[in-house]
């Protein structure tokens, strides 16, 4: 069975999708990723979709669901490497991917995750009070 590797990088998990996604594969990814977030206590998930040529409505919704589940497990999600054609398709399908942060590449995505982690730690030090 095909699997998408999930790599741990410090407090983050990196998912690089290098194969065409199908429904069963994205469902398996969702299950494995949420399990790994819970097991490792990861604070961030970076999903690289730069190899995807197309995204259908199911896969688009599942990416949004993964981000939502990650948030519930106290992890931010950033999707990177979205091709223009994929972005156009998602908009045409009416999928806004609410709650999913995006960045052009892995480096910028990791920067977003680091900044979110710093913000979270600062809020925890302040007792969760925003200023």
Pick out its properties.
about 15% strand, alpha/beta, five-stranded mixed β-sheet, Transcription Regulator spoIIAA, about 130 residues
In short:
This protein has 4 helices and 5 strands.
Structure description:
- The protein has 131 residues and is an alpha/beta fold.
- The protein has one domain (6-125): Transcription Regulator spoIIAA (2-Layer Sandwich), CATH 3.30.750.24.
- It is built from four helices and five strands.
- It has helices at residues 23-40, 57-72, 84-92, 106-125; strands at 6-9, 12-16, 44-48, 76-80, 101-103.
- It has a five-stranded mixed β-sheet, with helices on both faces.
- Helix 1 packs parallel to helix 2 (57-72).
- The N and C termini lie far apart (49 Å).
Radius of gyration, in angstroms, nearest whole number: 15 Å
Structural class: alpha/beta
Proportion in β-strands = 15-25%
SSE order, as H and E?
EEHEHEHEH
Shape annotation: globular
What name does CATH use for the topology? Transcription Regulator spoIIAA
Question: How many domains, as an integer?
Answer: 1
Strand order of the largest sheet: 1-2-3-4-5
CATH architecture: 2-Layer Sandwich
What is the share of helical residues?
40-55%
CATH class designation: Alpha Beta
Number of strands: 5
Report how far the terminal alpha carbons are from each other.
49 Å
- The CATH homologous superfamily name equals STAS domain
